[in-house]
Write a structure and sequence with these properties.
Order of helices and strands: HHHHHHH
Radius of gyration: 27 Å
Number of strands: 0
Helix content: over 70%
Number of helices: 7
Structural class: mainly alpha
Largest sheet: none
Length: 181
């Protein structure tokens, strides 16, 4: 046996072609091809729905982190404001209020899926600033942990920045409404 024939035979065994029944009339062949196409379209639609659901869940989880962080800052406003003052920040109450507003607004916008790219870009800037201003003393283990966590959140936000709100979002619903009007 020729080695080239053996190689081509093994390739055919690895990637079998879809088998269709042999039809002698064109209408039967078209019917089977339409059924095969419909089956693949249903599978693709199910996969797209699954991906959309997972993407929306991930977006909600990122939003929850910012909403919980804002809630914790509100809950411990006096303590956190005192920590900012102890680190030498001027107007710690104002600074903390801005941080809470940023996290609340950003978290809510991410949760509902509106202006996600702009929100993600803003939150990335916020996290970079927080990391540089608050967690830069790497002699403390907690700062390493917080900086790495912020790095992880920035990574998630970069995905949102790249892909937008997704199918299950207010942004998409508004786009469909404007397109149909």
């Amino acid at each position: 046996m020729d080695p080239l024939d053996a190689r081509s035979a093994s390739v055919e065994e690895e990637r079998p072609l879809p088998s269709f029944p042999v039809h002698h009339d064109p209408e039967s062949a078209r019917r089977d091809i339409r059924a095969w196409d419909a089956s693949h379209q249903r599978e693709a639609a199910a996969e797209k729905h699954s991906q959309s659901s997972l993407y929306a869940l991930a977006r909600l989880m990122v939003a929850a982190v910012f909403l919980l962080a804002a809630g914790l800052k509100i809950w411990s406003f006096t303590y956190t404001s005192g920590q900012l003052a102890a680190r030498g920040f001027q107007e710690p109450g104002t600074l903390l209020t801005l941080a809470i507003a940023t996290e609340l607004c950003g978290g809510l916008l991410l949760a509902i899926g509106y202006r996600v790219r702009l929100t993600a870009a803003g939150l990335i800037g916020y996290l970079v600033a927080v990391t540089l201003l608050w967690n830069l003393d790497f002699s403390k283990d907690v700062n390493w942990a917080l900086a790495l966590a912020n790095f992880g959140f920035v990574t998630a936000l970069l995905m949102l920045l790249a892909h937008g709100a997704g199918r299950l979002s207010v942004e998409r619903a508004l786009a469909h409404r404007h397109a149909s009007a």
